[in-house]
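Worked Example 4.2. Consider the chain below.
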Amino acid sequence: MALVEIRNVCKFYHLGGEEIRALDGITLDIEAGEFLSIIGPSGSGKSTLMHILGCLDTPTQGSYQLDGVLIHEASTRQLAAIRNQKIGFVFQFFNLLPKLNVLQNVELPMIYSNVGGRDRRERAMAALKLVDLENRSKHRPSQLSGGQQQRVAIARALVNQPKIVFADEPTGNLDSNTGAAILDLFRRLSTEGRTIALVTHDPSIASITPRRIEIRDGKVSNEVDPRLAGLSPKFGHLTAGQGIPPAAGEA
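Applying the procedure from the previous section yields the following structure tokens:
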């Protein structure tokens, strides 16, 4: 059984009497330990798909199973617990609380899990060590660079040992050198067996993942556009959702 299984998932909105099909029959699996990117142009439906995969939204129809749990049948309270215990999120703008220091920001998910204070501190420091920021634990977010703030956000996403981490445009607010360092961190974390999905329209991000899933017009595209995937045109169009050869120098 795959870690993530979604079948014929649709998300419809009604605006001014018109039906908008943000997602239209999405079916895909994500295996435990995969490192993948979900790609597509603006308005393709990839962010809507991430919201559903991350249990931030519910499908209009279709089924979703995460780690053996039928998400589409879960209550609001159950969804909150699943987000806290099984899913980690990394966002473009970090979403750190400015009045809390680094350690306290990383501890937050464990407070909602009712983890004791001593265990929280130990686990938060271990997560900060993973991202090489244990020596910044007492700093406030405003005292950190953008790349350091994103690493704090990654530590926070990992601290509850989630089954999967979703990163939505994780380098979009960073300069190119800092963004490359964040992508190297995700690559290293993936080699340690973590399941990571990067949601992006940036080919340079998509190019580092062994698998790319292209969303277009609310559907999984039958072919992956090599330009969106950050691949040389010499690869041609490739079957969607399959392992795609890494970019030059990444083999």
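Residues 234-251 have pLDDT under 50 and may be disordered. The radius of gyration is 18 Å. Compare this with Example 4.1 before moving on.
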